[in-house]
């Protein structure tokens, strides 16, 4: 009974939105009146994409190729949790969508979205240091480089290689497991060289 | 002014460079050029005209892609079982100035005078420069790479003035943009999986 009554009205609602010519965005609004929940669609003023539009990145004549460092461009295509919106919503062509996805992943690896990551994003080992990317296909060109190491080294000044310093500096590395490291050594180390 | 600059080339100048988010080897070539005095028109291998270079923020240097893991330093003591390849990030974790030192040492070329050149290199792990170094510094060198800004470092006004590239379709619902649950890794259908499970169960 319920289904039979719900379906036709639901279909008409969907068709109504699809055929509406006004440039609008919609938002689902839920309100409780007594023991019934009323679900409504609410209009939001924002210019929409025309129906026959092509991919925005190809048509907007960008003077540059989108890179991992173009944070303000990339975050338009992202959800608040750091994932990329699907192609049905972004309206990009297949190549540009993949390019944006690669750039977003590189930006995450470089730690450019500290407010838009998941809590358990892996930043251990080599991932804790700064890295850059030449272009969006850079991560597929992998090779091992062997350098000649040398023991010749002059250590002139205190290099301050204390683990708790590194942890305090980059908030992405903050971890309750490591608090004992920087709690133990609260005192500021004396600068011996500066007299 | 020009004459002062010309006269300064005959002295030991002090340069300062910020290594924050700079590629190690690009920075190394630049620093090596100033350490050996190669940038001066009076330069000759026998002229001892090298400058001092102070490199700050050594712990924030960058490498391309996965190079922190894939760039390995080969140490060989020529004893049995003493050959070892150490990835760059392990050296950097142990001493934040050592990678810059190794890179500059390589970029100075293979000559006997490079040890006297690299003696004028001053590496500092962070932005704190001791006053007895700072009083000598007379020039700041340009960085070799752009410093990338994080999304939190942009102001709201910059964000508002930035052109909007994404235009959603007419029937777009804002709630579709909400984060979705992690669907997990896609698993290929394996027709033999069930079969093997049945085989594993004891039939006797
Ligand atoms: Zn396109």
Descriptive account of the structure:
The complex is a heterodimer of chains A (195) and B (204). Chain A has 195 residues and is α+β, with helices and mostly antiparallel strands. Chain A has a domain of 74 residues: 30s Ribosomal Protein S18 (Irregular), CATH 4.10.640. Chain A is 30% helix and 13% strand. A two-stranded antiparallel sheet of chain A has the order 1-2. Chain A is extended, with a radius of gyration of 26 Å. The N terminus of chain A is likely disordered. Chain B has a single domain, classed as Ribosomal protein L13 (Ribosomal Protein L13p, Chain: A), CATH 3.90.1180. The chains are: A alpha+beta (195), B alpha/beta (204). At the A-B interface, strand 1, helix 3, strand 3 and strand 4 of A face strand 3, helix 3, strand 4, strand 5 and helix 4 of B. Zinc ion binds next to helix 2 of chain A. The site of zinc ion has 6 residues of chain A, from helix 2.
Question: What does this entry show, briefly?
Answer:
Chain A is of the alpha+beta class and 195 residues long. Chain A is 30% helix and 13% strand. In chain A, strand 1 and strand 2 form a beta hairpin.
What labels would you give this structure?
heterodimer, A: alpha+beta, 4 strands, extended, B: 204 residues, alpha/beta, four-stranded parallel sheet, two-stranded antiparallel ribbon, 7 strands, flat, binds zinc ion, mRNA binding (chain B), Ribosomal_uL13 (chain B), ribonucleoprotein (chain B), Ribosomal_uL13_sf (chain B)
């Amino acid at each position: 009974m319920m289904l039979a009554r719900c379906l036709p009205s639901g279909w008409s609602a969907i068709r109504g939105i699809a055929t509406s010519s006004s440039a609008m965005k919609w938002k689902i609004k839920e309100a409780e009146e007594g023991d019934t929940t009323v679900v409504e669609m609410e209009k939001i003023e924002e210019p929409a994409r025309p129906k026959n539009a092509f991919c925005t990145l190809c048509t907007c004549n960008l003077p540059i190729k989108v890179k991992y460092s173009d944070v303000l461009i990339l975050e338009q295509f992202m959800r608040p949790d750091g994932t990329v919106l699907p192609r049905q919503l972004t309206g990009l062509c297949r190549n540009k969508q993949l390019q944006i996805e690669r750039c977003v992943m590189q930006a995450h690896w470089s730690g450019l979205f500290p407010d838009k990551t998941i809590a358990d994003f892996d930043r251990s080992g080599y991932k804790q240091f700064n890295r850059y990317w030449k272009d969006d296909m850079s991560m597929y060109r992998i090779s091992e480089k062997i350098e000649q190491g040398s023991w010749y080294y002059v250590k002139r000044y205190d290099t301050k290689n204390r683990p708790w310093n590194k942890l305090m500096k980059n908030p992405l590395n903050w971890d309750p497991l490591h608090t004992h490291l920087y709690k133990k050594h609260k005192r500021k180390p004396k600068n011996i060289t500066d007299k | 002014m020009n004459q002062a600059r010309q006269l300064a080339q005959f002295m030991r100048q002090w340069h300062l460079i910020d290594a924050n988010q700079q590629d190690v080897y690009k920075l190394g070539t630049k620093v090596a050029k100033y350490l050996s005095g190669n940038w001066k028109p009076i330069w000759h291998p026998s002229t001892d005209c090298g400058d001092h270079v102070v490199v700050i923020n050594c712990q924030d240097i960058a490498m391309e892609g996965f190079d922190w893991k894939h760039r390995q330093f080969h140490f060989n003591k020529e004893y049995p079982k003493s050959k070892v390849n150490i990835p760059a990030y392990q050296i950097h974790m142990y001493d934040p100035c050592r990678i810059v030192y190794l890179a500059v040492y390589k970029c100075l070329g293979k000559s006997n005078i490079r040890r006297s050149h690299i003696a004028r290199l001053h590496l500092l792990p962070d932005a704190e420069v001791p006053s007895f170094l700072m009083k000598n510094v007379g020039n700041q060198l340009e960085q070799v790479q752009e410093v990338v800004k994080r999304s939190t470092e942009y102001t709201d006004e910059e964000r508002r003035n930035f052109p909007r590239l994404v235009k959603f379709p007419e029937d777009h619902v804002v709630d579709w943009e909400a984060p979705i649950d992690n669907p997990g890794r896609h698993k290929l259908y394996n027709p033999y999986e069930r079969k093997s499970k049945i085989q594993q169960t004891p039939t006797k």
